Amino acid sequence: MTVVSEGPQKGYSHQIEYSHIDIPLNFFNLAKLIVKTAPDAIIYWVNLKHLYMFPLLIFLKLLKKKIIYWGHGIDLLGKRATKLKYLLYSFEHWISDAIILYGHHLKANLHIKYHQKTFIANNTLNFNDYKFKYSNKDDILLRYNIETKINIICMGRMQKRKRLDHLFKAFTSLGRNDVGLIFVGPDDEGVLKDINGKNIYKIPPIYGDERLDLLSVADIFCIPGAIGLSIVDAFYCGLPIVTEAGDVSPEIMYLKDGVNGFVVPRDDIQLLTEKLRLLLEDTCLRATFSKAAKEEIATNGNMNRMCKGFNDALGFALAK
User: What beta strand segments (E) does 179-294 contain?
Assistant: First the structure.
């Protein structure tokens, strides 16, 4: 398997351990590469805005290559669904020999006639090489100059659509001087510039084992809006999650309201505060949610389950 992209995310310094080719992505570069390397199948994950994909898909069909769509089925974050957008997605579903979706619930986004060639690869992360290696919780907190022993954490890209101002208001309403609020991740949109105060910590992006070390010594994970793949990290480390309803993401399938976290109505900051307070004060409930969170990822978010979805899709496409 070879991954073709325009390179790793800015700021990512870890060694890439798979075969990869970094080139400017356009029709001519990709067509030339495919002719040269002659792959048996192509799995593509490309947004609709990259219009080179449509002539490339037709080109691949002319070459009689097996092509596999991988994604959400539709644009889950788009504010406005248009007939043209649905038509383009329908074209992708029709022309693909197989479809891989991030979660079973996303099959509702496809016409039923495509279900027989649709396979599920629950979106997750590989934790096989990670070992909880910290000897003392205080040592990890000290590394980031965190003075509070009980902490709510928010990790990922700091974006407006995540409604972090709601989290800040809820945290302030708690009135707990012994609780910290930790933000970890890039803030390219400047959403944290007005979020300041006692026991509020802002940490630049951290990767690999470091992110899991810090999550594992926190107590609650909270992103009010647009929660995504970070839910996997949080649940793996046993953190119950509190979020708001109204945003659709493939990874939200892991969150079971009242079992491993809470989902409150959108913009209900009072109830968001109450659920955070409940988990902070009820250590038994927090422990129960923590156990359920770990079990959810171990059962439905393990890497073998994700790989099976890809393997089944490849087997189906190549057998046609």
Answer: 179-184, 200-203, 220-222, 241-244, 261-264
